[in-house]
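[Automated response] Your request has been received and processed.

Submitted sequence:
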Amino acid sequence: MATGGDLAAFGHDHRRLRPNIVIGGVEGLAEREWPGGCLRMGKVLIRVQDLRQRCIMTAYDPDTLARDKDITRDIYRRFGGKLALNCFVIRGGELAVDDEVRLARGRACAESAAAVFAGLSGVSES
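Generated structure:
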């Protein structure tokens, strides 16, 4: 997952980062503070695990496969080698362009996840 802030700071073709989801409207690198939180988009709930360590694949142009090692070096120099986010799905569903994205942290994230898992196991909440 990446944000508009990540992509703007990166400054290259966003496809080099291979994000599954791009969240717009994020200023700067605010998402660097998101690990440990949850993102709610409609019924979808995604846990933000950590910052994504970038590999050599960012050096390859997605159209020509030409290799530019300076892009990977730049990620390591400017971002400590980590750019964008590793996430996992807690509750899946359909997403649409312009869906509202809400960040939950701490107890709110844990309670959201617990509600999903309780629903999956057939246990109802009281």
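Summary generated for your ticket: Residues 106-121 form the longest helix (16 residues). The chain has three helices and six strands.
If you did not submit this request, please reply to this message.
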